[in-house]
Amino acid sequence: MGTHFSNEHARILAIVDDSGLPYQLTPTGTVVEGAWDKALARVHRCHQAARTRSPHVITTTKGHIAVKEHFPKRMHGEK
User: Fold this and answer.
1) What is the pLDDT of residues 21-69, one digit of tens each?
2) pTM of the shown model
3) Could you tell me where the beta strands, DSSP code E, fall in 1-79?
4) What whole-number distance in Å separates Cα of residue 38 and Cα of residue 36?
5) Contact by Cβ (8 Å): 76, 33
6) How crowded is residue 40: how many other Cβ atoms within 10 Å of its Cβ?
């Protein structure tokens, strides 16, 4: 039987969820929307939390910076 990480994933997901930033789970990762500093700070917290359980953690990020006028206001924290 292989190693299961569902409890660890749930612990990390709670960090994302507590941020209040919009996010979406996908089959290959988690998409977090928000201001660059807030989103990256949350990614850093998740990475650090994973490091408390394993000496080897890989975190991959991709950034998409868009012109504000082209996206819904909710992505920029506006009502």
Assistant:
1) 999 999 888 999 888 899 999 999 999 999 998 888 999 998 877 766 6
2) 0.71
3) 23-26, 29-32
4) 6
5) no
6) 14
